[in-house]
Amino acid sequence: MITNMPDNQITLYIIKALKESKRKEFDAILDELQPYDVARIYGELPEKHKKRFLLYLNIDMLADLIEELSKTEQLDVLNRLGIERSGEVLDEMDNDDLASLLDDLSPEKITQLLSGMKKEESKAVQDIMNYPPETAGRLMTNRFVWIRDYYTVKEAVTKLKSFTDYAETINYLYVIDQYRKLVGVVSYRDILMAEADAVVRNIMYERVISVSVDTDQEEVAMLIQRYDFMAIPAVNEENVLMGIITVDDIIDVVIQEANEDIEKLSASGKSIDFETRAYVAAYRRLPWLILLLLIGILSGSIISTYQETLKEIVALAFFIPMISGMTGNTGTQSLAVVVRGLVSNDINKRVITKLVLRELGVGVIIGITCGILISLIAFIWQGNLMIGLVVGMSLLLTLIIGTLAGTVIPLILYRLQIDPAIASGPLITTLNDIFSLLTYFGIATLFLHHIQ
Amino acid sequence: MITNMPDNQITLYIIKALKESKRKEFDAILDELQPYDVARIYGELPEKHKKRFLLYLNIDMLADLIEELSKTEQLDVLNRLGIERSGEVLDEMDNDDLASLLDDLSPEKITQLLSGMKKEESKAVQDIMNYPPETAGRLMTNRFVWIRDYYTVKEAVTKLKSFTDYAETINYLYVIDQYRKLVGVVSYRDILMAEADAVVRNIMYERVISVSVDTDQEEVAMLIQRYDFMAIPAVNEENVLMGIITVDDIIDVVIQEANEDIEKLSASGKSIDFETRAYVAAYRRLPWLILLLLIGILSGSIISTYQETLKEIVALAFFIPMISGMTGNTGTQSLAVVVRGLVSNDINKRVITKLVLRELGVGVIIGITCGILISLIAFIWQGNLMIGLVVGMSLLLTLIIGTLAGTVIPLILYRLQIDPAIASGPLITTLNDIFSLLTYFGIATLFLHHIQ
Fold it and tell me: What is the first-listed, main subcellular location in coarse terms (chains A, B) (predicted)?
């Protein structure tokens, strides 16, 4: 009925069904909707219809709905449901989603929410919450089908059928032995092709790619991307299968990690999005701005030590923004290449040497090009050959050093296990600023003395 | 056998099998490996073993291997295979991967490669290549199972079994009517649960979320992410099912788009990675650097118009790097928030108004904080209240304007359908540089006159 209906008309239809208490029509519409759409419609509903809307949804749908909402909305919905029904909904939610819902809540609130849940489900969630943030353990779900290695294909199919709900996400089955250790994987396809009485152990792949529960989420994402998997199993140190991580969570990780890299590279402060309040956003950005301010003062004090030179030739001041701007920019260009390259490359000595030499080459090429160009412009503009030469030579040098700094510093930090994106920005800016001004005024002063 | 073997030992094992022509052992090892690993091992093989390695692989494995290689390697392998075998391999490859392999080749080379292929396969690839780059049409594959709406569940299962190869990637079946129009979708789970003689039309979901073949890949990614799909169908303007796009391709899109945003924001030049040669990288970065150089000259000429002021108070020069650096940085901070926000938010008037007001708030807060701070520092350092006030007031103003420029300009460009990331960087830098220097020297000159 609603197949080709535009979104806002569906909402109107639902409101009508709610107003007239037409449960059947309501169910028929909801049956065709995706969780994301249900959440969108819930958000658009007038306040007075929300209660009945939640009442009409079954537990499965409520769990789906809640997984799509923001944290505040989630808590609001759970409150409206009452302790008993919210317990059932929480039982039904994916563990990883529930864990991130509970993440920043007060201990009392957590206890209250968990109290309505089944024992085993609440334990499973608490287990997940014990893993550090941004690890495989935090992303994994226990909603998946595992089979024993001694099952026959027929037994595997029977198990699959009785867990169809879980079986929807991916299409392979992980195989465990009597100690719950991960020993293999079979695809639905293998199951379809095999004889009914074949033993799983004999048809499974034994070389399972898995991650440890404390593997960093960025590495999990890299593996899933590399192997084009729909899911990857997570094991503990004894190779016991603890859960699986599905590709839909990994897409979110990839976006989150890219955003984090951008935030750090642009020093825009951690996790500022469209919803963040002004004072929070300002508070998050200020540390970096104040640091920049102090760096600015440092640059200023370098200039001040050369004020005699500057007094003699005021024209030197005209080129300050250009030189520091360009040095800073080459540094950032190299930094961005390195930071993003680290996402998808295996790093070894050969790769590093090649990269550093390449960037040195880049620095020399752009240094010579821009150096010659600015020499000519400065000479024509100021009618003074010496100024042209000073500016050009300074730019040549600072561009080479800027490029190298932008390459080498993040690589060193990476080796020291410090996130290159966050640490390099300020470091490179500072060093490049200081270095470019010292070079520029140093060369200028030298040449002035030479002339005199 | 190789289940728990480290990677380099597997390579040695394979070399041994190749040396001793032990085909069976070779097959046993290969059977347990993922395509990514096969490609890695192929890359590590000494030249003399590559020929036999390729000879030992069957067509399926060769297709898998090629899909993991870089373009140059792909062409090299195809060359080694000879026209007939390479034709078979190309038949077996995913259409979208093949299309991107052929993308930049000469027409003669394309004809040569396609000539070895089956007619229908080579036509399918040529069809895909007719879609513009970065659209759904380019990403989609025709390797999937569709069923007719009048099939029974039993017929659907039979079809599924005869196409197990295709059935591995996802776990829903798209349903088409007699005109090949997309009319529904059923999950494997629905099929498992239903009676064997139930008709697909009656158990399918009718509200299929699909994309058009010319939908931008970024939008496809947003839909897949939003709905947590494993795949999404692509249709033409008559709603005829043309192909499906799977989540593993979408992860690559997400990474590619994030990298593009970062490249643009850091102006690091398009597609420079660890493999790019120095002169190519320099060539790609130079346009932006030369633009920056000209902007720098413009800034310099602004300073030069105020050289009388500067001569009187040389100390004003000390604060030039700080003011232009900080204004530029606040602009970039806002820009990054907007550019990444556009990836995952629906944009409307309400959102925009809220965002602009928020950033105005941020600008005021950081402006006041940093303004007061620098006033004090400048006063203490220079022992001159007037300089402190001039610098502080300038910074207050430029930070507010910098923040607003970084927010409003990308939004305007987005409205004009220009990519905000690429166009805003240079624009914001220029405007902020010019504006900050004008403000700074303007205020300074004004106050100087006032004193005199």
Answer: membrane
